[in-house]
Amino acid sequence: MSDREAVLAAFDAYDAVCKQLAALDFTRMTPAELFELQSRREHRARTTAVADHRILSALQAQAAPKDIGARSWPEILCTRLRISKDEADRRLADARDLGPRHGMNGELLEPHMAACADELATGTINREHVHEIRKALTAAAKHADPAACAELERVLATAATGITPRTLREVATYALNTLNPDGDGPDPAEHKRGITFGRQDVDGMIRVSGHVDAELGAYLKTITQVWGAPGVNNPADAEPVHNPVPNPLVDNPGMPPTAESVPPAVPAEPRPPEASPVPPEENWLPDDASVLAELVDYPPEPFAERRTALDTATGDPELSADQLAERRSEFDSALDAGEGTAAARDTRTKAQRNHDALKAVMRNALMSKQLGQHGGLPVTVVVSTTLRELQDAAGVARTSVGTTMPIRDLIRLAEHAYHYLIVYREHIAEPLYLARTKRLASKAQRLVMISRDRGCTMPNCPVAGIDCEGMHAELDWASGGRTDITGLGLGCGSDNQLAFETGWATTIGEDGRVHWHPPPLLDVGQDTLNHFHHPEELLRPPDEDP
């Protein structure tokens, strides 16, 4: 810490330099020079934030809000600096976590978030990184000890030095899932899931709200990304466009699915032909409504046989018809409330039953083979995991729509047909090396890319794999590139054109991943891989093999 005279002298020099900078004209400088100046400004803005933390820490150590004339420190900052309360709260939180602390005897203690304070002082991270790490630590503190939280902060602060705050959020989420795979409760999907339908408004609209679990979320996002695309299923269109692309799983791609090509979700037992009691004459109509009632095949009354047995066992001739009816009513009520019935065993709320019903509808729709295709694949959920996680039945899998799913949910989901479960160990039997025979990636190649890349390979791009295109990352097709899996990668629609329009270049590294190399003005030595879809890479210890 500097003494009083040194502090005042440094701030006098700082004020003079800031006044000089504000009067400068930058219009005659080249883009490269301006980028360099902007980077230097950003670096110093981060490092000088340390002064703000130390000023506020010293101020709060020497006085209380009432000594200054206010009820709280946010109120003081709002009045003194003319900032909003949200900004005042943020600055005080930064000072509390990143500023120095003093013990009871006056000894200097390190900040609460020491790793973040060190990285911020060197200018390698910014305030947004600190905000994401603070949120992660708050969540981790509910189920982890202080030592584990400190280690998590150190890992996240190190990872933040080369990624954007949004990618850091994904890394932090993955780390929290690793620390606490079961969530805050015994089963978050069991207790938090639920869909609630509100009252209908005067305009006919009904508000739907709630939370969906990982499985239903994957179903919904998979279907809506295709059937909710612009121009598809538009009720205002006189000739609405449905998904016109044939499903590659259907035997006859040019024909609509038939009953033979679409197996039912639950196999039905063969039924012998029954003669119809209705006469075949055209325009036949019975003269008497009672005749029509006799033709209706009503299902048997529930528990009818057991009630008949009850009547026989208690057939007391002294019981009146009303008494017998009352006894049967009590029997029915006991059945309804009995533990042996499915309804009695069901402890779900109405919102949870709505949720599970919608999930079943989505699952059956995905299993029907009638949703068409998207990007060369049938509209279905593609889930990738590792062999170790599958064998251990623990961990987190990732879906083609960018969501994560606990392994226990993945195993349950994989029991249903027509989902792709990719356990990456060996190549599948379909051709993955097409050379110059085909420009577009095959279905098998897209499955491998979704499993390997998970999403767009451009660094920090969050677009999920289902919305990406296959691109020739090693050598473009027009330049003689080959459609082989070793030279392909996923890229979203906009990033796929960067190499052709803005000077970005892509290569396949020794790790088999797509690396993006920026043009000179954007090259600051950043990572060439996209860790947004692979957050576990930034949490792996340096000495651990990938």
Describe this structure in words.
- The chain is of the alpha+beta class and 546 residues long.
- It has 3 domains: 11-179, no CATH class; 187-195 and 207-230 and 243-252 and 348-425, no CATH class; 443-539, no CATH class.
- The protein has helices at 4-22, 31-47, 49-62, 65-68, 73-81, 85-98, 114-122, 127-140, 146-159, 165-179, 188-191, 214-227, 289-295, 304-313, 321-337, 342-345, 350-367, 387-392, 407-413, 443-453, 498-501, 536-539; strands at 101-102, 108-109, 194-200, 206-211, 373-374, 377-378, 382-385, 396-399, 404-406, 420-423, 469-472, 488-491, 505-508, 514-517.
- Strands 9-8-7-10 form a 4-stranded mixed β-sheet, sandwiched between helices.
- A hairpin with a 5-residue loop joins β13 (505-508) and β14.
- α8 (127-140) packs parallel to α10 (165-179).
- InterPro entries: DUF222.
- Pfam families: DUF222.
- Residues 39-237, 325-453 form the DUF222 domain.
- It comes from Mycobacterium adipatum.
- This is DUF222 domain-containing protein.
